[in-house]
Design brief:
26 strands; about 375 residues; 4-stranded antiparallel β-sheet; rod-shaped
Length: about 375
């Protein structure tokens, strides 16, 4: 065991002055197992400093008397022990490098980690546990004046602002045009979903169908533009109908006798009983699928839930066929009417001739009686 005098001797502060040609004066103390160096003046160009360097237990501290990391700059502000630690005790902000769960991270004055690189190579901003290669977490909403969580481009020109559930194209604080596959290619929304969920709303946030447009719809260029169902059957618009594109062409069979049994009706939807279907509360009109099915079953389909639907897009063509049948019947009646008229004309001529002969006969008889 060392004597008190030897301990005091070993603990005596040694001071050495080193003057450098570049104008830095360094004071070095050695106290026990702590080596401390302090710059009393430091001016290189416009850089000025006053710092203390500590060597303690194989660790280096700058402004930290007992560094807990291999390199620590600034006094420790929490119990985190990385390999390299840069602290700002004045604002409680820090920048750390370590191994293990996080390779690098930084946090601000309230201790919230604002940037993390995990040992998996994933980067987190606003989260310490990034789930993907880059994850940005926050609650800032994007708007023409608010920048959301991520901005691509310059805020004083064209840019895209993104938050947790919105993408907005902007130009210097104003809304702008968002282009998707401007040079070509498909844009697919909800294409891989097996649950058949997810709608697209234009002008509305309350969607009840796959595409819900609150406003007018313009389709085509004036000479083209067709709306079709899944099997390519025309619903509306200017659609391909070239003979060269078709095969197995068959005319409609007679439908007039069937169409006259269809009864158009006015009705109200059960909108309160079935709110998920998005029916309106106003008076509507149409046909009843169950009634149509009795007469023209090919017009009735059934959705995935079991509700019946009508192929209304085929009705105009059936009515066209019915008009053709009415025209044919009318032409037949007209021909029959002409035949009857001709027969009546002949009958009238014969009656007139008989009348004339009768008058002549009566006149001769009277002359003979005289």
């Amino acid at each position: 065991m060392k004597k008190r005098g030897e301990i005091q001797k070993a603990s005596r502060i040694l001071q050495t002055w080193i003057s450098c040609a570049i104008g830095i004066t360094v004071v070095i103390w050695i106290l026990g197992d702590i080596a401390r160096a302090q710059t009393t003046s430091c001016q290189v160009g416009t850089f000025e400093c006053a710092a203390e360097l500590y060597l303690y237990d194989g660790k280096v501290g700058v402004g930290a008397t007992a560094p807990v990391s291999k390199l620590q700059i600034g006094a420790q502000i929490d119990t985190f022990t990385p390999y390299v630690m840069l602290n700002n005790p004045g604002t409680n902000s820090a920048f750390r490098i370590k191994s293990g769960g996080h390779v690098l991270h930084a946090h601000i004055s309230d201790g919230t980690e604002v940037f993390t690189i995990a040992n998996t190579g994933k980067i987190g901003v606003g989260t310490t546990d990034p789930a993907t290669l880059l994850q940005i977490f926050g609650t800032v909403d994007t708007s023409p004046s608010s920048h959301g969580l991520l901005v691509l481009g310059t805020t004083i020109g064209d840019n895209i602002s993104i938050d947790s559930n919105e993408i907005m194209a902007r130009n210097n604080g104003n809304i702008s045009t968002l282009y998707l596959n401007q040079e070509g290619g498909h844009v697919i929304i909800n294409g891989l979903s097996t649950a058949n969920v997810g709608n697209v709303g234009i002008g509305t946030m309350s969607t009840v169908d796959k595409l819900h447009v609150a406003g007018n719809i313009r389709v085509g260029t004036g000479t083209t533009g067709c709306v079709k169902d899944a099997d390519g059957t025309v619903v509306a618009g200017v659609c391909s109908s070239d003979l060269r594109l078709k095969k197995n062409i068959e005319p409609f069979s007679n439908v007039l006798d069937k169409l006259i049994h269809l009864q158009p009706v006015y009705f109200y939807w059960k909108s309160k009983e079935y709110p998920e279907l998005g029916f309106g509360a106003s008076r509507s009109f149409g046909l009843v699928a169950q009634e149509v099915e009795k007469v023209l079953p090919e017009l009735v389909t059934q959705d995935t839930v079991g509700y019946k639907a009508i192929r209304y897009n085929e009705l105009p063509f059936l009515m066209l066929q019915a008009i053709k049948e009415l025209k044919a019947e009318n032409e037949t009646l007209e021909a029959e009417n002409m035949r009857i008229k001709e027969e009546l004309k002949d009958i009238r001529s014969e009656i007139a001739e008989i009348k004339h002969l009768f008058i002549q006969k009566v006149s001769l008889t009277r002359l003979e009686d005289k």
